[in-house]
Amino acid sequence: MLHKISLIDELKSGGYEASLITTYNAYLPFYEEVVLRRLVSAGVRHNVLLMDAQQYAASLINHAPRLAGRQYTLLPMSVPGAFHPKLIFLTGKNKGAILVGSHNMTLAGFGFNREITNLVYIREKDDVAGIALAQDVWTEIEFWLNDFTAGIPDHARSMIRRVKEFAPWLTGSPPPDPKIRLLAGRPGGMSLWQQFTGLLEGETSQFSVGGAFFDQELSFLKRVKKDLQPRRTTVAVDPETVQMPAQAQALEDISFVQAGRIGCDEKSDEPYLHAKFVLAQQNEGVSVFASGSANPSRPAWLADDASGNVELMLAHIGDAALETASSLGCGNIHMFPALTQKHWEVILVNQTQWENAPATGIRSGVALAEGTRISFDLDLLTDFRDLRFAITATDGSAISQSVEATIEGRFAVLNFLSSDIEKAVALQGFDANKLVLNLILHHAGMIEEQARSGTQRRLKDALASLDTDNPDIALLIQCIDKIVFDEDGLAAPSQPPSRMSSRNSQEPPKSDVVATLEIDVSEMRRRGKKQRLNHSSDFAYLLDALIYHLRLHEDKSREELDRFGRSEEEQIGADDDPDAEVTQLTPDKQADLLIACHSKVRTVVNRMISQLKAYAEGKVPLTKILIRLLGVLAVLRELRSCDARAAWIEKGKTAVPKEQRLRLIEAIMLNIFEREPSTLSASLLSLEALGEDFRDSDDVARLKGLLLWLAWDCGLTLNLHKPFRESPEAWDQRLKQNAMIVALAQVMLSDETVVDEAQQSIGSFTTGELDWLRDIRQLADRCAILRADIRTLRRGESAEAGDIAFHKTAEDWIVRMVAGRNGSKISLVALKENKPRLTYLADHLAVASLSSILGDRP
Known about the structure:
The protein is α+β, with helices and mostly antiparallel strands. The protein has 27 helices and 27 strands. The strands form 4 sheets. The protein has an 8-stranded mixed beta sheet with strand order 17-16-20-21-14-15-19-18. 43% of the residues are buried.
């Protein structure tokens, strides 16, 4: 016998962070009280359960879930036949597990029945065979999400896809294991039978079948006989429980035998046989043994475009097939005792009982709950008018009612008090007091919190600690180091899915640009909604926390934390000693915390500078540099904001020393603002080579805004005053600083998102110093106007040091500072450490003085 596995024990073995389980039917109290509890206690916080839509509807009536949509995601899968796969997919950072079998999510399936379940571990990142199988499994999951979730909010689908993000090893294209293969049946795809027979190479001498349910026409058994013409076909069943038409007894050349003790050990009795398997043994060629969810029936094995089940089987090929079948007691069923006439009489009685659930007549599904709104697919209201809606608690009692559903596109929207929605688990619709609609509430915020990775949780804790007397700077920098400098999720940009959308179709974006020939600076600025880039979930969470959702000047709901960094809820029941001495935040402790903070900041800045130099040397792509820089600047801004609010920073001191800020701004300006002449390379001012989507992304715009904030925070300004007897070194430094300001003005050019990010960042520190940003914006606008009408400028032959120069013909040429003129050649400032000057012929350029530009005179 093969070693028996306990599915419950495997679930709690640890090392996993997310689970996705599929089932045909489910006893939801068992999942919530036993399986989910074991998962969470083992550290698996993000959990998903998918089940057949018809069974889902029945479960909502008979055994309604209490925790669905709040502590885990529960979705119905609507298919022409039945959604029948039995899968457990566990993912973690360094490991994974795949269980494909016959077990439903019931107490019987997990403990009492005789089931066959295949367990495959993924132990290492180089486990090629395991990863290949996991990728095949995920391919099927994606197909299910795309084709069998009509009416389900996109947000719920996105939370299912989050399971994959806990498995960084689930990448690449490893070759499949020749000894094991996933067989996946679904309507519209290749049938299970086609996949199975495709693994056979020679003549089949013997075919063995075991299962609990057969179709009424015995189509599968007839197809086996027709296609393979095996010399011997044997079917093993438990006559007391099998669902099979009694006319099977009349099939020629097929033997029916008693399953006996298949799947039993020496000490156990013979519980219900729910296992399903097939074994093809060949004279020449390989043998194949497959087990999993598929009953020996037409809907399971012979699905076509219009009908059939979704099934999963795992096939063992070659010697492994015979070894596995023999170990399970399935290899020699032709030697088992034949069914007697008495057995056939029992089977005749059983055949009126079938696995299908009765239709409830009540429409079911999922509604999205967020804030004061509940939205759901409008098609669920087809043929209904004037429904009364109620949101209900776990005990089924009504919390609040409404009759005013508004229509927004393809969705019906209801409004309730947010406090009522937070307590609700379901939305029900009544037609003349008759229940006609029953929807589980998918609480977006709660599920998102469950779906956070361990790194995201640690980052959240570290950020929260900044407002306490015990900031965990080491944890914060550790998280940043892991997220930013190990971040590889720099995919092509795409719009995040709408929370409300219930379909995958996307309308083309509408342009806000008005065609005009008039030169108007306000019309030159881009105001269209930008797309965010795709990132790993950890990096996306960092941006959400520091840029998009938790800006300190906007967030009014930040929790008050005690001196231990605990929220009000976490303080309840805490066993604190009221007489214990409270550690005072003394000047010495403040100094120690700042020393530690400065050390960590220096480490991050050093790493970022190394990355910038690596880009300049051609070792790292610019896309990765810019995204990493976005993360670093967001963190530095957060630390700088602590100066004004955190008690651990002594007044007049800073969490981010100006020395480190100056080092970083100079490294940025001297490494990513220039591109190689006469090449298709890119720079921060010339991103066309990276594609329009990347260039115009929201991420890049936010980066530019943060860069302007850093320049302001470092005290960079235009300095047009020439001191008496200015030394060449001082002049060169002043020229370089002015060149940086001119370059930064071009970063802002024509982009309101950049301006907004800079204004929000600077404004969160001071409301009295936005004149700096106004002056930079004025310079940007004047440069744009002059570039559009270059005839108003002076000829290049009149250039003087300190002027700014425009190229007469090159459209993508950036505006530069003039360093000097030697006859017909003009020397320009280049923001490049190893090549600080560029030379152009004077007749190619037009120039203007900075003082005339700032004075609004050409």
